[in-house]
Design goal:
- The structure is a single chain.
- This protein has about 475 residues and is an alpha/beta fold.
- The chain folds into two domains: about 190 residues, no CATH class; about 170 residues, 3-Layer(aba) Sandwich (Rossmann fold), CATH 3.40.50.1220.
- About 0% of the residues have low confidence.
- GO terms for molecular function: NADP binding; proton-translocating NAD(P)+ transhydrogenase activity.
- Pfam families: PNTB.
- The transhydrogenation between NADH and NADP is coupled to respiration and ATP hydrolysis and functions as a proton pump across the membrane.
- It is found in: Cell inner membrane.
C-alpha cells in the first residue's frame, strides 16, 4: 500500500475517533471513554503526519513532546475543578497562538514561490489564521485573568469603546487584504498578528464575569476555526476536520449558552453584561432586617420530615469543594427514603457543564441530575430546596425587573418550593452584581457559611436526629 493511502486511512480513522469521542463526551458515563478515543485519534494523526512530512529534527520534536507531557501531567494532577475554566481558557489561547506561528512559518517557506505565482487559497488561509489565532490567544488570556482575579471581573467600559473595537477590527481586515495582495511582504503578517492580539484584548476586556461561560465556549470555537484554517495552509485533512469539529461544536454550545441566558451573541460581545453592577444600591440596605438566618440543626429538622428534596449546585459549592459532602448528604437522605434530585442551570458555574462535571466526579448518579426545563414545573411539589452557592441562576429579578442586567434570563424557580435553604458565605451579589430577592422571601432561610462545612454540619445533625 502506498504511503499516501496509509496516510489518508490513518487520517480517516483519526477523524472517526474524533467524532465518536465528541459524541460520547455528551454523557458523564461515557465522557472518560470519549476523551480517550479523542486522544487516541490525535495520537494516530500526529504519528501519521510525522511519517508524511519532511522532518528536520525528530530529536527536537521528542524534546517538545516530553516537556509538554510533563507539563500536562502536572496540570492534570494539580489543577482544582474550580480552576478548570481558567485551564480551558489557557489551552484555547495556546491553540490560537500555535496557529499564528505555524501559519507564519508556512508563509516564510512560501514567499519564494509567491515571487512567480501566488497560491491564494494558501495566503487567504494564512491571513485568516493570523486574525483568528491572534484574537483567540489574547482574548483567552484576558478571560483567564478575569477568572483568576488578576483582572477585574467587571465589564471594563470607557467612552467610545465600541468605536475603538470597530476601528481595530477594520485595521485587521485591511492589513489582511493587503497581505493577500502583497504576500511577499512578511512584515505585514506579523503586524497583522499584533493588531489581532490587540483586537482580542479589546473584545474581551469589556465583558463582565457573568458572561465568562459564553466567552470560554466562543473562544474554544475560535481555537478550532484557527486550527482548521491552518489545516488549509498545510493541506492537512485531519487538521481541517478536527478544527472544524471543535469550531462547530463550540459555536453550537455558545448558542445554547446564549439561549440559556436569553441573550444574543452580539449582546454578549458588545453589551458588557455586569457593567451596571456598581450602579446598584447597597446590598445591605436591600436586605436590612428582612433576612431569616437558620442553623444546620434547624435544616436537619426540615429534612427529617421532607419527602422530596432538590439540591441546586452553584459556583460557591465548587469553590468550597463541597461536591463530596453533597454526595454524602444525598446518600443519607436517599437511605431514609427521601426523593433527592439535583437542579442544573445551563450557566451555573464558570464553564459550560461545570456543575455536571463536579457532581459526576463525586459519583452522583446522572439520572438524578435534572435540567432546568425539566425540573422547573415540579418545584411547587418540592418540600425543601437546598441552594448551595448559586445566586444569579435563582434570582427572581430576571423575571420581575426589566431594567436588571439579568432581565429575561431563564432561572430555576426555586422560590415555588415550600421551603428554600440557601447556603452562602454572605449576602454578596453574584457575577451579575445585583441583589437577590429570593434571600428575603417568606419561605427562604439563609444558612451562612462555607458550602462544604455547612453541608457536613447538616449531615452530622441529621445523624443525631
Amino acid at each position: 500500500m502506498e504511503l499516501i493511502s496509509i496516510l489518508n486511512l490513518s487520517y480517516l480513522i483519526a477523524s472517526i475517533l474524533f467524532i465518536i469521542g465528541i459524541k460520547q463526551l455528551a454523557h458523564p458515563k461515557t465522557a472518560s471513554r470519549g476523551n480517550l478515543l479523542g486522544a487516541l485519534g490525535m495520537f494516530i494523526a500526529v504519528v501519521a503526519t510525522l511519517f508524511d512530512r519532511e522532518i528536520l529534527s525528530y530529536e527536537w520534536i521528542a524534546v517538545g513532546v516530553l516537556i509538554g507531557s510533563v507539563i500536562g501531567i502536572i496540570l492534570a494532577i494539580k489543577i482544582q475543578m474550580t480552576a478548570m475554566p481558567q485551564l480551558v481558557a489557557v489551552l484555547n489561547g495556546f491553540g490560537g497562538i500555535a496557529s499564528v506561528f505555524v501559519a507564519g512559518a508556512a508563509l516564510q517557506l512560501s514567499i519564494p514561490k509567491y515571487e512567480t505565482a501566488v497560491n491564494y487559497q494558501e495566503i487567504v488561509s494564512i491571513v485568516f489564521s493570523a486574525i483568528v489565532g491572534g484574537i483567540t490567544f489574547s482574548g483567552s488570556f484576558i478571560a483567564f485573568g478575569k477568572l483568576q482575579g488578576f483582572i477585574t471581573e467587571k465589564a471594563v467600559r470607557y467612552p467610545g469603546d465600541q468605536l475603538v473595537k470597530i476601528l481595530v477590527g477594520l485595521t485587521a481586515v485591511g492589513l489582511g487584504v493587503y497581505g493577500c495582495i502583497e504576500p511577499t511582504d512578511e512584515s505585514i503578517y506579523w503586524i497583522l498578528s499584533g493588531v489581532s492580539l490587540l483586537l482580542g484584548i479589546f473584545l474581551v476586556i469589556p465583558i463582565g464575569g457573568a458572561d465568562m461561560p459564553v466567552v470560554i465556549s466562543l473562544l474554544n470555537s475560535y481555537s478550532g476555526i484557527a486550527a482548521s484554517a491552518t489545516g488549509f495552509v498545510l493541506n492537512n485533512n485531519v487538521l481541517i476536520i478536527s478544527g472544524s469539529l471543535v469550531g462547530a461544536s463550540g459555536i453550537i454550545l455558545t448558542q445554547i449558552m446564549c439561549k440559556a441566558m436569553n441573550r444574543s451573541l452580539t449582546n454578549v460581545l458588545f453589551g458588557g453584561f455586569g457593567a451596571v453592577a456598581t450602579e446598584m444600591k447597597d446590598d445591605g440596605d436591600f436586605y436590612s432586617g428582612k433576612v431569616k438566618s437558620t442553623s444546620a440543626e434547624e435544616v436537619a429538622m426540615l429534612l427529617d420530615v421532607a419527602r422530596s428534596v432538590v439540591i441546586v449546585p452553584g459556583y460557591g459549592m465548587a469553590v468550597a469543594q463541597a461536591q463530596h459532602a453533597v454526595r454524602d448528604l444525598y446518600q443519607l437522605l436517599t437511605a431514609r427514603g427521601i426523593d433527592v434530585t439535583f437542579a442544573i442551570h445551563p450557566v451555573a458555574g464558570r464553564m459550560p457543564g461545570h456543575m455536571n462535571v463536579l457532581l459526576a466526579e463525586a459519583d452522583i448518579p446522572y439520572d438524578r441530575l435534572k435540567e432546568m426545563d425539566e425540573i422547573n414545573s415540579t418545584f411547587e411539589n418540592v418540600d425543601v430546596v437546598i441552594v448551595n452557592g448559586a445566586n444569579d441562576v435563582t434570582n427572581p429579578l430576571a423575571k420581575t425587573d426589566p431594567k436588571s442586567p439579568i432581565a429575561g434570563m431563564p432561572i430555576l424557580d426555586v422560590g415555588n418550593a415550600k421551603t428554600v435553604v440557601v447556603i452562602k458565605r454572605s449576602l454578596s451579589a453574584g457575577f451579575a452584581g445585583v441583589p437577590n430577592p429570593l434571600f428575603i422571601a417568606d419561605n427562604c432561610l439563609m444558612l451562612f457559611g462555607d458550602g462544604k462545612k455547612a453541608t457536613q454540619e447538616m449531615i452530622a445533625a441529621l445523624k443525631e436526629s
